[in-house]
Amino acid sequence: MDFIQSTDYSQFVSMLPELIVLGIFVIVLLADLFAGDTKKSFLTPMTAVLFLLGTVAIWIVPASGESIFGGMYVNDTMTNAVKAILNIGAFIVILQSAKWVDREDVVIRKAEFFELMLVTLFGMYLMVSARHFLLFIIGLETASLPLAAMVAFEKRHYESHEAAIKYILTAVFSSAILMVGLSFVYAFSTGSLYFDDLARVIQSGEMSGLLIAAIAFVIAGIGFKLSLVPFHLWTADVYQGAPTAVTSYLSVVSKGAAAVTFFVIFTTCFGGVYSDCWEWMMYAVIIATITIGNLFAIRQKNMKRFMAFSSISQAGYIMLGAMAADGRGLASMIFYIFVYIVSNLGAFAVISTIESSTGKLSMDDYNGLHKTNPWLSFTMTLAMFSLAGIPPFAGFFSKILIFTSVTGTGSMALYMLVLIALINTIISLYYYLLVVKAIWISPEEPKIGAFRSDNWSRLALWICVAGIVFFGIVPFIYQYCVDSVSASAGMLGLLN
Amino acid sequence: MFENILIWFVVIPVIMMIGLGLCRNSGMKAIRAVMVVGSTALLALSVVLCCDFLRLRGMGVDDEMLFTGSWLWYAPLNIHLAVGVDGISVLMLLLSSVIVFAGTFASWKINPLPKNFFLWYCLLSTGVYGFFISIDIFTMFMFYEVALIPMYLLIGVWGTGRKEYSAMKLTLMLMGGSAFLMLGLLGIYWHSAPEGGVPTWNILEIAHNSAIDPSWQNLLFCCTFVGFGVLGAMFPFHTWSPDGHACAPTAVSMLHAGVLMKLGGYGCFRIAIYLLPAAANELAWIFIILTGISIVYGAFSACVQTDLKYINAYSSVSHCGMVLFAILMLNTTAMTGAILQMLSHGLMTALFFALIGMIYGRTHTRDIRQMGGLMKIMPYLGVCYMIAGFASLGLPGLSGFVAEMTIFFGSFQNSDLFHRVFVITATCSIVITAVYILRVVGKLLLGPVQDKHHLELTDATWFERLATVTLIVCIAGIGCFPNWINETIQHSFVPIINAIQGAI
Amino acid sequence: MEITLPILILAIPVCMFLLLGIGGVYMPRKVAGVLGILGMGTTMTLAYIVAFTYFFSGNPEFIIDGVRQQFQVFDVTWLAFTERLVVNLGFILDPISAMMLIVITTISFMVHLYSWGYMEHEPGFQRYYAFLSLFSFSMLGLVVATNIFQMYIFWELVGVSSYLLIGFFYKLPSAVSASKKAFIVTRFADLGFLIGILLLSFYTDTFNFISMTSNPEAVLSSTGGATFMGASVLTWAMVLIYVGGMGKSAMMPLHIWLPDAMEGPTPVSALIHAATMVVAGVYLVARMFPVYCVVDDSLTFVTVVGAITAFYAAVVACAQIDIKRVLAFSTISQIAFMMVSLGCAYDQPVEGVHYSGLGYMAGMFHLFTHAMFKALLFLGAGALIHAVHSNDYTKMGGLRKYMPITHWTFLIGCLAIAGIWPFAGFFSKDEMLAAMFSRHWFWGAWMTMVAGLTAFYMFRLYYLIFWWEENPDYKHHKPHDAPWQMSLPLIILAAVSCVAGFIPFGEFVTWNGEPYHIHIELPVAATSLIVAICAIGLATVMYRQRNEWPTRVKNMCPGLWMAAHRRFYWDEIYMFITHKIIFGGICTAIAWFDRHVIDGMMNAFAWVTQKVSYSIRGMQSGQVQAYVVWYFLGAALLAAVTWICLL
Amino acid sequence: MDLSILWYLVPSVIMTACGVYGFITRKNLIAMLVSLELILNSADLNFVIFNRFLFPGSMEGMVFTLFAVALAAAETAIAIAIIINIYRSVGDSDIHKVNKMKF
Predict the structure, then answer these.
(1) How confident is the model at residue B337 (pLDDT cuts 50, 70, 90)?
(2) A·D CB contacts under 8 A
(3) Which of A352, B353, C182, C323 has the highest Cβ tally under 10 A?
(4) Which pLDDT value is given to residue A204?
(5) Which site among C607, C625, C627 would you substitute to test the A interface, given the most A Cβ atoms closer than 10 Å to its Cβ?
(6) Which residues of D touch C620 (CB under 8 A)?
(7) DSSP 8-state code for residue A365
């Protein structure tokens, strides 16, 4: 009863980012309803512009920094920063999907596409801000279920359906496992699923099989979204089958949200058993992720599948930040996510442009691309270098910074982990260079004719190129991540 | 920031890249104009720097580094863009400028995609310059990798032969080296500060703190030395060098063998030895064995090669092995010799590769069995090749002799048997070098003309002459008047030697 | 003495080299020749002035109460290895360097002059003169070196100029390989030299000759009695340094390059491979003589090597067909003579020996005279080859009436080298033999025998060229004497060879600068003279005109003759070692190893990665259920392993 | 008689096992979905049990379960929709027929 009385609906105000996204969602929905079934060519620009405004708003409006609903939901500078970054990713995806959604068989559903996307984004926001497992689960499901619909968006392509079914089945399975894990966690708790309360309960020393199982299941559940090995197997097929826009969305935005959430959960509520337990689990998982991802990526010819495996190994690098498990680690992780978003989306922007203009997806089709499309080749090269971590492009800095923060903990084991990661960068460099080789070096005549990509994707490409080139050289983005994390360090009980 | 002269070494290439970006892909004139102006500016800049440096030293300014400047970059990790030069870096910058200058003219008629070629070429030189000017190991490493990656495209696109394989191999092996290097640098960074201090990337501060405890030093020394040693073509990590050089286009071989391989040696003493002196004293012997092997090994392998570029690649293995070998002797004279060897090897290998490129451009073969009597056909190139050869086999009056002698006499200061044995082994290389150099000269330039079609070939053009003369003048200059360079280098080694002595 | 002239002596040739080398292509050959000759002429005059000032001015710089001093005209820093170990470039004036100045410039000038006629129609005339100037520069720099490192520097330079000049006819493969051989063999010897210098300088901390030779005991003590494999370090150092000398002076077993070096133009052979460069080894030993004396073993080594080489070369010379080869081997043998005589010298008085430093003086004396008459012989041979267009005496015979000047001058040369009174060779050889006897009778007897052999093969050569029988093809092309540019040097050198013996050499050149009055050792002189005359008689009997004796002698011991003709198979041995063992064995093996093992390793990594990535593809089976199995097992495994590890 | 917590936990564990087993072995998509529901429900059951036995004072487990059920429903709905799509395009609901994309 007193719960009801104490409920103060003004609390919702400090959920500003969520509100903004919901607002845009509603606007798009209404516009879609009342615009009649013309081509709705205004939808894309409208969504894009609104979205951009929303992003800016999230960025400039200072975070309330308070935790509401009894601490279930936290809105602090860190979450704000993450949301803004996710927004940028989503914005670029909108831009690069602009041409695809106007295809005659998709155009009637283009509003739905945007709506679904906004919903998933909303879910991710909740994930990031959640400080209670219930809210977390809700956010997770909100983020992952609509994605199934988005994956299945290509009605006429069989691959799309196959991808969707694989996705939904594994997703449900993993969420089921996650819930089982959470039920174990609940068994530990003092009857509350607040991260802070759990953190008080779960202290190092008092380990039990149940807790270990719980942690393992939670890792599995979130690892599914992050596509960590061995929870990654859906990734390749889904990425390949899904519409390219959705693939790029999956590969960056949902990953980013999941990574941050993972960090929050494991440093706050499982922080006590970091070095006892999950450090070593993640140690193994990260090594497996990076290595397996690389080993699979070597052989791939289909660009989307290739990017899928590359993103798997990238996820491993992202999770290195979680190994650091301190403010520096989180900041480096967020920065990595940001850089990874622009680099990966740069690559995907090129892929989708080429696909939507020529329908070509195989790496062999890229042979001699530079003869016909020098700018696309240039962008692709930069993106590949950035993903491979080559200076002076942003990827180099994100990698080095995350390595630095991991080694900062000073444990020899983590040095070895970094060494393994570094050696893996050689393999990754190999397959990224394969793309560069196809574009620049292969002597064959280009299979892809010269074409002029639409302005939307141009804009997307330009944003990505700018990001790739400048994010590393200008230091204030990393500074921004660090500041936001340190400002909200109180909110998440960081280790050391 | 821009009042610091050193920054311009990075800025000018960037400006050049922008300028090239504005050129049309076919606008050969404009591209050449940009390159000539830019590389000349760089050459002038480094000459000015050199004179200014000597002037300051002459005025008795004996800070360890001059023209220092430091600008905060990544505050949270205390990363600065810190620049500064001592005598060695100044000479290295001079060397780089000379070779960039010569390389520009050596690739006068490059095709296809001249614009992209020079873009990557400028990126490469940016990395090289940045590496030599920076005294912050983070930026140092960054520029190091900046210099590495363009090699892939430069070899892959504009190379010859099995270029894709070689380019990939070269890139991956060097990156493999830099993986270990990175680990070492991270270790150095986190242990750089005394207990409770803020860790730093700045070489001078690290050396001044000397807080890295020996147990860590050994590990880090191995990582960094191997990391740089790969680029220094240290046995057994040298196999990228023959293939890479053989397939690279002329200017790239020049820049790569001439300057890029020097990054290895430079890093070895600037980071591995200077910052980890205790480990250097303790573990030098391992690498002395390896480098000693690569000296003789490279020379012997060069004796039976038939491809001109392979011969020079293996002789580079031998000579760069000499550089690392001398660095590991840990005394002033030998290390000075190492630097002299870097300069001399840089110049003469650049000259070699330039000439090979020119000859190949005419005969369209690099197989010495298919050539002969070229001295008759193209006397200018022939004479230049002979001069390069004599420099390489250490003829007095040319740079090679000075370098090798300094190395031998310096290395001989270590009087225990182990060092003696390896020094004697190293000295044997002067004979083997003579063997393979004269073998090439005899087969390639002298004797009867093998291929009648070669009789129509022409001698060097004006830009080729310009490229070669520049290098030859430098080679002879060092060879005849070595002492001022020698003194400059010796002075710069004082702090490093003190660090080593202090760590015993 | 002020610095100008010495500087000029070195500067003029090097400037001439640069001028002719760079600008030569653009100037007509006559101009180039004249420039070269004038340049060398000036250098010669300057050298004479310097030398005569040194010997006769009586200036206290040079001579203090009758003892000639070593005087460094200048000595500037070139390269400072450490504070103490500094390489200087300088100009030392002392008896031997002054003497060498005279020898080098004289012969060089003669050769310059001679070449103008001899090389007239060869392509690359300018280049030839440029190289000659380069050589003269390097040789002069070598003899005036104030420190052993400077000597090493110019040592290398003479090596390379010899390489260039031997390979002057670079279109002939034989010339190319000969030049390569010469360079590499001497380079190999220089390795020994270098290591020797390393050792010596490491202990003495100086390169300077004067500081080393002025008190050799200090050098000995500086090594602190360190030994290596039984011998003292200093012995090692001196022997290694001598190895360098062996290379340049073609002592066994490093002699093989000199006969091949005859592929070069004949004047070059006269200059480099007879008169000047090949005696660099002797000069080196003479320079370091006091230091050699403190370690007696090294001096003995010098003697033994010299003695063996002298005999070997003399025997081989008896069985050569190519006249230049004969002269080459005689050069080897004569240089060995000098070596032995140096080796037989003492640096302090010994009872029973009336003058202990005799060997040194005699060796230098012979160096001087030998330079003159051997150059004469080579130039004469050049004239013959010029006339007959062949190096082969079977193409000659009975030339005396066609080429009188050549004939007489050549005869004088032969008499001189055979050691017949009153020609130059007699006096120097007599002194040397005396010195050898004074060391030990064996050396004396042995070398007297060699002297006999010398006389024999020289006159064999002489008769086979000028007497024997006329070659039929003189009918259609009639040989004649060379033009004046070539004859003039012959005559001058012949004149010198006649009178040089009467120079009171001991007054000028002794090991410690104190003058010594030469006087003929009658018993020694008599024996050597008799031996020589008998040898000449034998040669006369056998070769004066066509007869069966030579073939008969040959058939008496055909194996020996063949062996001698093939120079006792030294070249074959070297060929085997270098090509079969080093190239075929070591180099090829290493190259293979590099390509297949080291490089194979690197490729193996890539290969393995590819294989692994292929072999694990089954994991991605496309089956949702399989995925889930992996998923579940993964989670379970994670839990299980951690549980096992922690609890 | 009063039942200890074990009496409730064992069935839920069995449910989980059955769910996993069924999901892995069944061919038919619908059947797989059903087994998924089994796992989800076992999780819900756990929550309820723990809440009832361990923390009788609070309600979180119950609330969580309610939400979880809702989520499960939503998942099922979407899954069914996609299965229908599959059925349309493949003409069968056999999981083994949908593995075109592999390796």
Answers:
(1) very high
(2) 127
(3) B353
(4) 66
(5) C627
(6) 102-103
(7) G
Q: Are C406 and C399 in contact (CB under 8 A)?
A: yes
Helices B150-158, B137-148: inter-axial angle, 10-degree rounding:
10
Q: Are A299 and A383 in contact (CB under 8 A)?
A: no
Digit-coded pLDDT (tens) for B342-384: 999 999 999 999 999 999 888 888 888 888 888 888 889 999 9
Q: SS3 string of B224-256?
A: HHHHHHHHCCCCCCCCHHHHHHHHCCHHHHHHH
- Give the C-alpha separation, B125 to B256, whole Å: 10
Contacts of D86 in chain A (CB under 8 A): 161-162, 165
Range of the domain at B243: 5-503
Question: Among all chains, which residue has been given the structure tokens 């998923």?
Answer: C631
For chain B, the average pLDDT equals 90
Parallel, antiparallel or unpaired: strands C63-64 and A67-68: unpaired
Burial of C330-352, coded b for 16+ CB within 10 Å and e otherwise, reads bbbbbbbbbbbbbbbbbbeeeee
Q: Distance between CA atoms of A39 and B341, rounded to whole angstroms?
A: 72
Domain locations in chain A as residue ranges: 2-492
A207 pLDDT higher than 80: no
Q: For residues C156 and A428, what is the distance between their CA atoms, to the nearest angstrom?
A: 52
Q: Is C443 a residue whose pLDDT tops 50?
A: yes
Provide CB contacts within 8 A for B61, sequence distance 6+.
none
Does a structural domain hold residue D101? no
Q: What is the ipTM of this complex?
A: 0.90
Q: What is the pLDDT of residue D92?
A: 86
- The answer to the question of residue D73 being in a domain is yes
Give pTM, 2 decimals. 0.92
**Distance (Å, whole) CA C620 – CA C634:** 14
DSSP output for C26-48:
GS-HHHHHHHHHHHHHHHHHHHH
pLDDT of the residue at A190: 84
Contacts with A319 (C-beta within 8 Å, 6 or more apart), sequence order: A226, A228, A259, A262, A282, A285, A286, A289
Nearest to C88 by CA among C213, C201, C220, C195: C201
Q: Are A280 and C645 in contact (CB under 8 A)?
A: yes
pLDDT, tens digit, 9 for 90 and up, residues B413-463: 888 889 999 999 999 999 999 999 999 998 888 888 888 888 888 888 888
Q: Residue D95 domain-assigned?
A: no
Residues of chain D with Cβ-Cβ distance to C621 below 8 Å are: 99, 102
For residue A432, the chain B residues in CB contact (below 8 A) are none
Residue C79 touches partner B, C-beta closer than 8 Å: yes
Query: Where is D42: in which H helix or E strand?
Result: helix D29-53
Which structural domain, as residue segments, surrounds residue D13?
A: 5-90
The dihedral region occupied by C569, where left means phi > 0, alpha psi between -120 and 50, and beta the remainder, is left
Beta bridge pairs of residue B85? B66
Helices B28-58 and B114-133 meet at what angle, rounded to 10?
10
8 A C-beta contact, residue C144 and residue C50: no
Q: How far is C203 from chain B (nearest CA, A)?
A: 10
Cα(B178)–Cα(B230) distance, integer angstroms: 8
Q: pLDDT, tens digit, for every residue of C240-295? A: 999 999 999 999 888 899 988 888 899 999 888 888 899 999 999 999 998 888 88
pLDDT tens-place string over residues B133-149: 999 999 999 999 999 88
For residue D17, being part of any structural domain is answered with yes
> What is the tally of structural domains in chain B?
1
Structure tokens at A222: 């979130």
- CB contact under 8 Å between A391 and B189, yes or no, is no
pLDDT surpassing 90 at residue D65:
yes
A408 has a chain B CB within 8 A of its CB: yes
**Distance separating alpha carbons of residues B297 and B306, to the nearest angstrom:** 17
CA–CA gap between residue C303 and residue C289 (Å, rounded):
13
